[in-house]
């Protein structure tokens, strides 16, 4: 009987592991791994981090090329990399591969922290903090869709100043949502060392559908009217006053009206003789990071000084004879009378009687009722639109 013996030799196992494994160019989201390759051998780079001791493949397929740049999921984390050697490119053949030495390193921390993205009209103002422990050249912004010179991550906007912590992007489109990210960089070359991209909250620009229609000063009050397109739901409206009127300050300390149905508002506490610049915007929430429309200005509000001085109200039968003085320093169009209850054409302050002559200092009201008490007031006005007036003065 003959017997045959066949010796089987596996060609799958690789006896030579990758040598001289090292890392370079550490960034927040990647690292470059190098080794000395051997002809005919295929390699897979793997990594693990402090959150898991399990190694993960970092390449889509095995390779014969060194170096390889791999992605890292956690900026600032500690990683360990190794290189496995195989006889075959096909990952279904060849067992587990031969391990190289391990190399441990720490990824670059992402120390850029977005703190605020404040849209206003066509502008987006960004604010952030940065840990100065890591010296960088500046910051890089990306915008999707583009805002002015700020494009996506292939065409970002560089801010070559590492002391900057705020930046305003002009040219945004009202009604558009934007995704804005920031990273720190070391130089302006394409291969610059940089932190990972960190996103601001999605920036939503409310359309500027607020339309100021009237700013009516009267005495120490300013009554504002506006319209708003209800297509865009907002939380309320915000007023800015320069100089301040009561609780209404400039755009850094505005007055919120948390009611989206309001279309008129009276500001008390204005100073007669003072000019005011009043603006309005719609907002979605009441936090400092609120999504809001652009500021829209009312016409400049001019308060005429209260230089009208009633001197006499003399009733006679059905007539009331009025007299007053006025300081001609402030040129006005005429005088306005209010009567409660009404006397002839002179009604209350919503339906007063205008005397369109600034030289008049006396007037007789006709049609009063004997035995009736009347409250009569006067103010000077600049035009007949009821928009520029002094405070109401006097009474009978």
From TrEMBL:
Keywords, alphabetical: Repeat
Highest taxon above the source species: Eukaryota
Start and end residues of each Fibronectin type-III domain: 17-111, 206-303, 304-396
Signal sequence range: none
One Pfam family here: fn3
SUPFAM superfamilies xrefs: Fibronectin type III
SMART domains per the UniProt record, alphabetical: FN3 (SM00060)
CDD domains in the cross-refs: FN3
Protein name: Fibronectin type-III domain-containing protein
Lineage: Eukaryota, Metazoa, Spiralia, Lophotrochozoa, Bryozoa
